[in-house]
Amino acid sequence: MTPGQVLLFAVGGLANAAYLFIVAAGLSLVFGALRVINMAHGSLYMIAAFVTVVIGNQLGAGLGFWGGMLVAVAVAGAIGGVVEVLVLRRVYGREHLVQLLGTYAVSLIIAGAVRIVFGANYRTIVSPIPGHIDLGGYSYASYSLFMIAAAIAIGGGVWAMLYRTNLGRNIRAAVADPDLLNATGVNVTRLYTTVFVIGAALAGLGGSIVAPSQAVGSSIDTDVLVLAFAISVIGGLGSIVGSAVGALIVGMVISFGLVIPATNPFALAFVFIIMTAVLIVRPRGLFGLPES
Amino acid sequence: MLQVRGLNVRYDKSHVVFDFSVEVEDGKLLAVLGRNGAGKTTIIRGITGLLPGASGSVSVGGRDMSGWPAHRRTRGGLAYVPSGARCFQNLTVDENLEIASHATGGDRSWTKKRIWELFPKLESLKNNMAGGLSGGERQMLALGRALMGNPRVMLLDEPTEGLAPVLVQSIGTLLGTLKSTGVSILLAEQNHQVALRVADRAAFIEKGRIVEVLPAARARDSEVLHRILGV
Ligand SMILES: Nc1ncnc2c1ncn2[C@@H]1O[C@H](COP(=O)(O)OP(=O)(O)OP(=O)(O)O)[C@@H](O)[C@H]1O
Ligand SMILES: [Mg+2]
Question: Which of B71, B89, B90 faces A188 most closely, judged by CB atoms?
Answer without folding.
Answer: B71
